[in-house]
Structures are given as structure tokens and as C-alpha cells.
Specification:
single chain; 228 residues; alpha/beta; Rossmann fold; Alpha-Beta Plaits; 2 domains; four-stranded antiparallel β-sheet; 6 helices; binds ribulose-5-phosphate; EC 5.3.1.6; Ribose5P_isomerase_typA_subgr; NagB/RpiA_transferase-like; ribose-5-phosphate isomerase activity; Ribose5P_isomerase_type_A
């Protein structure tokens, strides 16, 4: 479930500023979505100018874009460390995020959390005082009814994410389904994160608690950087 709105100019400013943090020799996690795409394109231009980096994509989308703009790719099992990750978010409350609007949150969390530094890129429409969007939960297809019951027990209302230009559900890059789980305002993201992670059949959920090191928010005339 993607967010509506947010200006492309603000997304571009955020993405391009975060890309300036990429230095020669780095291994860089490449997030997913329209804001991160601006960062990936900027890194591609820097590679054209001689920057030596290797990227680890988090989705089919970011892999394809990285290849198109000429970023050499690697994988988590081929590197000792990830220096930096740049990724978008659907909602940002301080350093806590809801991600998974593009159903890529399982690989995003893996790569973003493996990075020494994780920079979030966003436009102001993503900023909130308290997280309240439905939380995307990737589930093994067979586990769907079981997970739905457990989400209701935890006070949430799950909705199977439907594909838009295909009959039936969204199927993730990992071959799984996504339940968008509405909890209303989330008082304690850490507690909910732990509860969702504990449900058998849940592959990963889109609450990113205390993972971000900084948020780059594009504005009408610049970029606000918040460090955590
Ligand atoms: C994909 C994500 C994206 O980072 C999130 O949806 C933000 O995307 P955009 O920059 O296009 O608004 O979590 O799973």
C-alpha cells in the first residue's frame, strides 16, 4: 500500500543529499521505492565519474535500477560488512518507521539493519508524531489464516494486499503474501514489533524500530537532516 502525495522535487532532494554520504570503497544497501530511486540514480552518476562502490539491492526494482545506472552489485553473503544503507519509508515518527509500501520490507530490513549506518530518505508527507498506518506483514502463503487470527488477538485488523494489475493478491519478491494490519495509533512500536515477529508464519513486518541513524527529509528548498 503506497503512500499518496509527496512532491517529486522533495524526494529528489532527499535522495540526492543522502547519496552524498557514499564514499569510495563502500558497500551500500540500496533500498526500494521512488525516493530511494533518486539516491540510486545519483550513485550511478558518481560511479560514472569514477566512484568505486558495490551495491546490495533490496528488491527486483532496486536491482534493475542499479544495473541500469551502472552500479556494480554484490550480495550479503559476499561481503564482511555493509557500510551504509539508503532507504525510503511510508511513515516516520522520530527514528521509528513503517515500511513495506512496496512489499520489499523483508529484504529491506535485512540489508538496512546489517548496515553500519542506515539513512532514511523521505518527503514531509511521511512525517507523523505517532505511527498509525497499517503495518505490512509478509507471511508464508500457507500461514495466512493462522497469522490473521494472531494479528486480531494482538488488536489488529489484517487485510490481504490485492494486486492492482493482476487478479488476486500481491506476491512478494520472496513468493509470499502481504497482510496490511491496521492497529490504529501505535503507542509502543517496540512491543508491537516483538509481538508480530513472534508469530509463526510471519516472514517479516514493516515496523523498523530504532534502526535508522538519520532521516533526510526533502523540503521545498532544501533537506532537513535529523540524526538519532
Ligand atoms: C518499499 C518501501 C519503500 O521504501 C516505501 O514504500 C517508500 O517508498 P516511496 O519512496 O516510493 O514513497 O518500504 O517496501
Amino acid at each position: 500500500m503506497k503512500t499518496d502525495g509527496g512532491s517529486d522535487a522533495a524526494k529528489r532532494r532527499a535522495g540526492e543529499r543522502a547519496a552524498e554520504a557514499v564514499e569510495d570503497g563502500m558497500v551500500v544497501g540500496l533500498g526500494t521505492g521512488s525516493t530511494t530511486a533518486y539516491a540510486i540514480e545519483a550513485i550511478g552518476r558518481a560511479v560514472d565519474d569514477g566512484l568505486e562502490v558495490r551495491g546490495i539491492p533490496t528488491s527486483y526494482q532496486s536491482r534493475r535500477l542499479a544495473i541500469d545506472v551502472g552500479i556494480p552489485l554484490t550480495a550479503l553473503d559476499e561481503v564482511d560488512a555493509v557500510d551504509l544503507a539508503i532507504d525510503g519509508a511510508d511513515q516516520v515518527a522520530g527514528g521509528d518507521l513503517i515500511k513495506g509500501g512496496g512489499a520489499a520490507h523483508a529484504r529491506e530490513k535485512l540489508v538496512d539493519s546489517a548496515a553500519d549506518r542506515f539513512l532514511v530518505v523521505a518527503d514531509p508527507s511521511k512525517l507523523v508524531d505517532r505511527l498509525e498506518r497499517p503495518v505490512p506483514v509478509e507471511v508464508l502463503p500457507d500461514a495466512r489464516p493462522v497469522v490473521e487470527r494472531r494479528v486480531r488477538d494482538a488488536g489488529g485488523e489484517p487485510h490481504l494486499r490485492a494486486a492492482e494489475r493482476k487478479d488476486g493478491p500481491v506476491v512478494t519478491d520472496n513468493g509470499n503474501l502481504v497482510l496490511d494490519c491496521a492497529f490504529g495509533e501505535i503507542d509502543d512500536p517496540g512491543d508491537l514489533s516483538a509481538r508480530l515477529s513472534a508469530i509463526p508464519g510471519v516472514v517479516e513486518h514493516g515496523l523498523f524500530v530504532d534502526l535508522a541513524d538519520a532521516t533526510y527529509v526533502g523540503t521545498t528548498d532544501g533537506v532537513d537532516v535529523h540524526r538519532y
